[in-house]
Specification:
Length: 347
């Protein structure tokens, strides 16, 4: 059997990529040959997939996504494949993994407290219009046989918004290797804190994810401003506008307490040395990073809650946070974090 996997940008530190790599061994044991359709094949130790580079020229995000989807489907049509699983919105896949949630819902979250100018800019943005259109076509496609969702919330949004059959929606939570992410990893804290000049006794908040606007990094920085020193915030992940967030931190007097480390090939050393894995995503999905944080927490899993829209935290912190850490509501996050560490927030 030959399986095609479509991922426009394959990065070793991405959540979708870790989902793929986690399934590779089981697939290979079943004699499944795998071809990855991607724009660029990175230098990686992973030699279990056959890369098929599809990299048409583009200028801008609209041309980038449209061009890749068109070229990938053309190449897939020429190949002898038994099954196509895509992590991108395109119309030639049998299985779609909705790892980015529903774009229409994300836009609604983003615009809840937006100005009239911001709403106009989004309405006129051709890339957003393209994504909304391809999303509708994807869930109406007769080719699509199944959708993998990483949370029940995403499943319910697809079912409700697109009237998609529930029988084709499958919730598959991201797996966590308990040998890699465990409470024992917290013993290795010193080297990373020294590298970024973070005090050993400082509560260290970690946010892992690329695309800082979608991940709610600005809200997390504002929440940190309500916590007393030496609380520190560390972000790892790709972002085109790093200076924008560095400027926000400086403006709030946090330049020494916010570290934007950029993309990292292996996030595990960071998870080993953080105090709290902080999440304030606009799309509020249940992510692989949250599950990894659970695995390395000394608290038993039954003491954790995944119902909180903004982050993965213990239930005691959830109660203190008044149920929300939404991007436009930073005080509950700060208050809950302060309570967790026995320090008052600057209300």
């Amino acid at each position: 059997m030959r399986l095609a996997i479509v991922r426009q940008r394959y990065t070793p530190y991405g959540g979708a990529e870790r989902f793929i790599e986690g399934a590779l061994e089981a697939l290979l044991e079943r004699d499944v040959a795998i071809t990855l359709y991607t724009r660029e094949w990175p230098q990686t130790h992973l030699q279990l997939m056959e890369p098929h580079v599809v990299d048409p020229f583009y200028l801008g995000s609209l041309w980038r996504d449209w061009g890749f989807a068109r070229a990938a489907c053309r190449e897939i049509g020429r190949a002898k494949l038994n099954l196509v699983q895509s992590h991108e919105r395109l119309l030639c896949c049998d299985i779609f993994r909705a790892g980015d949630g529903v774009h229409a819902v994300w836009l609604e979250e983003r615009l809840k407290h937006a100005s009239a100018l911001e709403r106009l800019k989004v309405a006129l943005n051709p890339h957003h219009r393209y994504l909304l259109g391809i999303e509708r076509k994807l869930f109406a496609s007769p080719w699509l046989a199944a959708v993998i969702c990483n949370s029940r919330m995403v499943r319910d949004e697809i079912k409700t918004r697109f009237n998609y059959p529930e029988a084709k929606l499958h919730v598959v939570y991201n797996a966590v290797d308990s040998a890699v992410f465990s409470p024992a990893l917290r013993e290795h804290r010193k080297s990373l804190r020294e590298r970024f000049r973070i005090a050993d006794d400082a509560p260290l908040f970690l946010l892992v994810g690329s695309g800082y606007e979608r991940k709610g990094v600005a809200a997390a920085i504002r929440a940190l401003a309500e916590l007393p020193a030496p609380a520190h915030f560390l972000v790892i992940g790709r972002e085109r506008h790093l200076k924008r967030y560095a400027t926000l931190a400086r403006g709030l007097g946090l330049s020494g307490r916010v570290t934007l480390a950029g993309p990292q090939t292996d996030p595990r050393p960071f998870c080993r040395r953080s105090t709290i894995h902080f999440r304030t995503p606009r799309s509020k999905r249940w992510r692989a990073g949250c599950r990894s944080s659970r695995a390395r927490s000394p608290a038993p899993p039954s003491s954790w809650s995944s119902t909180m829209p903004g982050s993965c935290v213990p239930r005691t912190m959830l109660r203190a946070s008044s149920r929300t850490c939404a991007p436009c509501s930073t005080r509950p996050c700060a208050s809950a974090s302060a309570q967790m560490h026995g320090a008052p927030s600057s209300r």
